[in-house]
Amino acid sequence: MAFRRALGLTAADEDELRRELRHRALTGEVASERGNPLGVLYVIDFVMTRGSRSARIRSVWFVPKGTDAPRLVTCFVDG
Predict the structure, then answer these.
(1) What is the chain's pLDDT, residue by residue, as a tens digit (79 residues)?
(2) Cα–Cα distance between 43 and 74 in angstroms, integer?
(3) Which contiguous run of DSSP H or E holds residue 19?
(4) How far apart are CA 28 and CA 21, in angstroms?
(5) How far apart are CA 20 and CA 44, in angstroms?
(6) Strands 71-77, 53-64: parallel, antiparallel or unpaired by DSSP?
(7) d(C-alpha 32, C-alpha 55), whole Å
């Protein structure tokens, strides 16, 4: 519901959001990083623009110890 209100995204737009998240995971600035015995959590914040709408998105990624494959934990409209 929040993505629809903020950006007009619906379930039919999941590929668009997925592409944006992957792009930001590779190119975005890490807002915070926290390690634990299982791996490292990364928080990446970015502004997504779609048409005339913009919203701040927070994504949280986990990279398990011993791998370099990030896994999306969550993402949400922040604000």
Answers:
(1) 899 999 999 999 999 999 999 999 999 999 999 999 999 999 999 999 999 999 999 999 999 999 999 999 999 999 8
(2) 10
(3) helix 14-27
(4) 9
(5) 12
(6) antiparallel
(7) 19
